[in-house]
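Appendix B. One record, verbatim.
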Amino acid sequence: MIYSSCFNLKFLPRSLIYGWERNMAARIDISSPLPIVEGGYTEANSGRMITEANLELDVGIVVHKSSSDEKTEFLPVLRSGSCAEIGPKQYMEDEHICIDDLLGHLETTAKFPSPGAFYGVFDGHGGTDAAAIKSAFLKADYAFADASSLDISSGTTALTALIFGRTLVVANAGDCRAVLGRQGRAIEMSKDQKPNCTSERIRIEKLGGVIYDGYLNGQLSVARALGDWHMKGPKGSACPLSAEPELQEMDLSEEDEFLIMGCDGLWDVMSSQCAVTMARKELLLHNDPERCSRELVREALKRKTCDNLTVIVVCFSIDPPLK
């Protein structure tokens, strides 16, 4: 299934996908992150570090690598469903994309691990423009600065999941969240990057930012986002608002049943464990990830969420979870 709302697939973050394609094909160990330049990268130093590392990979990534203890020949069978609702807001600023057959979509002939898939949730703010333009995190951040047609205050959080073979890679900049359902247990695959988070607060204050009532510089409720160039200096300069994603990688096993990706409109009113419990119950009833995503959105609306809602549910098997 290929689904994208309100934008053409030319906005797909191909540099992120192709970078990971090359890493997977070359069997490169990415457990050690590239060096981080505080406040961002210039086009010059980004290119230099990529060349020195011989990688086609977006930079500025903090890597948290984990893998299943079980050695298994398990390969996921991928299928997904999604649901997006405007909720109580006046405008819909979320975007999302689901590609269950990524290798077929890219028409690649290289011997990459199969299956391959790509999923993304983008929670815009300050206007609908930002969430409709996709590129790979830092490159997209520069694109927002260069696009004269965009409102300078337009921005978006970005949460993506990339699957090649058994490997799941989740990248996050902002407060969307990815949660893995493992035999009924919730495993958080991303961290909500809020200004009050200890590590984010330290980084923000070190770079001269301030936090007022949970808001970065009194304006933004997230510590990382793409765009929002009204809060940033020249490209590559030190800035409390970062576009650098955090990354987590793991190998899927038979115990891993599904992945839930959602914007903060879901997680503001529902815990990770509650969402996994509800999703598992729904999948046991009908084994339909799209219906499952709709039920999660419906439940969030019942709980009086104050935001737009976007939910993606990715199943790793054609069968429902075991009872």
